[in-house]
Amino acid sequence: MNRPKDRRWVAERLDIGRELVYLTRADCTEVGLTRDDILQLTEDALTAHGRGEYEMPAKIGVHPYEDVFYHAMPAHVPAKSAVGMKWIECYPKNPSRFDLPQTTGLLILNDVESGCPVAIMDATWLTAMRTPAVTVLAAERLHPGAETFGMFGCGVQGTEHVRFAPRALPGLRRIYVHDAVEAAADRLIETVGPEIDLPIIKSDEPREVVESCAVLCSATVIQRKPLSVVRDDWVSAGQTILPCDLNTFWDPAIARRADRYIVDSADEHRLFDEMGYFPDGLPPVHAETGEIIAGRADGRTSPDQLIVCSNIGMAVCDVVVARAIFDLALDRGKGRILPL
To answer: I need a labelling partner for 169 at 20 to 30 A (CA). Which of 134, 253, 279, 330 fits?
Structure first.
């Protein structure tokens, strides 16, 4: 699974430069990648990023509405023969307005040697998988003995975070969840509860989750003005906070006073700072998540440290997972071959 197929193998199944494979969301979900596979692939991508063995410009985007963004996310990871770009958008009102997912997107994968596109695939499932993988891999390094995990946001991302957390944090004893829409938390518990051998506790109060958990994550909305749902005085020394929603959900004072402020991509966080997503300024960055994973920077060095690790999504993870999906699809006859 860790080694991509060589070009000759691909060319025996696809006429590169004249054909590409189109993979629907169902094709991607049914191709055979397990969550353990996703964890390993994501760890490989983060390690490559931490070692500087990649090319990935900071994501650019457009914003048709104040609460909406589109991002173009290209990357090249040489060790995985993976190059391509994800085009993804986020519409927070989609579920209520149109009964559609908040996040949708496509990914184009290219042949590294010729540049020709070899695949177009749904990026929704891929994003839903690699995002929690990054969170729990970071949690594994930053808080390996954690017994409690708290999840804010119980949509697609929150649900997958709860599925992934026990795989990287084997000492977990309880998981707490909260969503502003109570029914979303109920669905998460009903769906994931039978799959993991841990109690999942629904809380109506964000403060209860914060004060009950060693490791905390949020996957809600991303907006320029912080919501500050979690107050600074609720957070204690020794906790690990892993936002997937940038600077939105937490009081910005929490990140500013953290003993370690870690980000997946310093370039991308600086770009978001320039765009106004950190009204009080971007806190000093201690290290990148990949540097922690690769062992090139220290993470937690004391049990009393407050650590904030902000992971907003990197294209290196997307193209590495996409390359694995592509190889499996060709091997198992998934997808539809289309002429270029």
So the answer is: 253
Domain identity same for 150 and 276: yes
CA distance 93 to 96: 6
The pair of structure tokens assigned to 64 is: 């048709």
Length of the chain: 340
Structure tokens at 16: 């590169």
Same domain, 239 and 330: no
Report the alpha-carbon distance of residue 22 to residue 206 in Å, rounded. Answer: 42
Residue type, 256: R
Same domain, 224 and 238: yes
Residue 1 in any domain: the answer is: no
On whether both 84 and 217 belong to a single domain, the answer is no
Residue type, 85: M
Question: pLDDT 10s digit of each residue in the chain, 340 long?
Answer: 668 989 999 999 999 999 999 999 999 999 999 999 999 999 999 999 999 999 999 988 898 998 888 999 999 999 999 999 999 998 988 988 999 988 899 999 999 999 999 999 999 999 999 999 999 999 999 999 999 999 999 999 999 999 999 999 999 999 999 999 999 999 999 999 999 999 999 999 999 999 999 999 999 988 888 999 999 999 999 999 999 999 899 999 999 999 999 999 999 999 999 989 999 999 999 999 999 999 999 999 999 999 999 999 999 999 999 999 999 999 999 999 999 9
Specify whether 76 is located in the same domain as 168.
no
Which domain, by its residues, includes 82? Answer: 7-126+316-339
